[in-house]
Amino acid sequence: MRKARWAAAAAGVVLLVAGCSAEGDAKDAKSKASRSGSSAAPAEAGGSPDAASVTKEISDAATAAGFTEDPSEGLPASLKKCAVSWHADVKKAADPKKSYDATLTALEKGGWKPGRDREQPGSVVRTLKKSVWTLEAGYRGRDSFLFIYFGATVDSAECNKAFNEELAKRQRS
Q: Which residues lie below 8 Å from residue 23, measured CB to CB, with a gap of 6+?
């Protein structure tokens, strides 16, 4: 179960990176980082939030909306500054769909800008952007098999390389 959960999170992260690497915001973020003269990761350059700040924003919004975190295995150390992952324990939420919507509303009030939404029967994925971060919030399944997650990634060459290296390691093992 842990490997399946990590694989799902990793696949989501890779899809996030692949889906947003061509967007203009990535060029803007890289440009800001190079103008600042910093060799730090884009998440730390130009006043952009770091992974700990993004995790806190997600956690604060989700818990205020009625969720508790469902602890997961977490991300590999090589991805800690490039991605964050937060899974909701939907069994403890009074109304998971309402809590999901309230979490997204709180994040938007906190400066996250709505992006593209994708809906299919039984599945909704909303995208939000803030600085160099892209957040995907997913709501999948129904009733007893419901999975809600919030995952965010940094779009940068350094992080894309880290994601690809980690994925290659996982495929070899």
A: 155
Question: How is residue 117 annotated by DSSP?
Answer: E
Q: Which amino acid is at 109?
A: K
Q: Nearest 5 degrees, angle CA 126-CA 24-CA 135?
A: 25
Give CA torsion, residues 154, 158, 162, 165, to 10 deg. 140
d(CA 146, CA 100): 12
Q: Where does 7-144 show beta strands of DSSP type E?
A: 83-87, 113-120, 123-130, 133-142
For residues 116 and 90, give the distance between their C-alpha atoms in angstroms, rounded to a whole number.
24
Enter the pTM of the model.
Answer: 0.73
pLDDT in tens, 121-159: 989 999 999 999 999 999 999 877 899 999 999 999 999
- Summarised one tens digit per residue, pLDDT across range 1-13 is 444 344 344 444 4
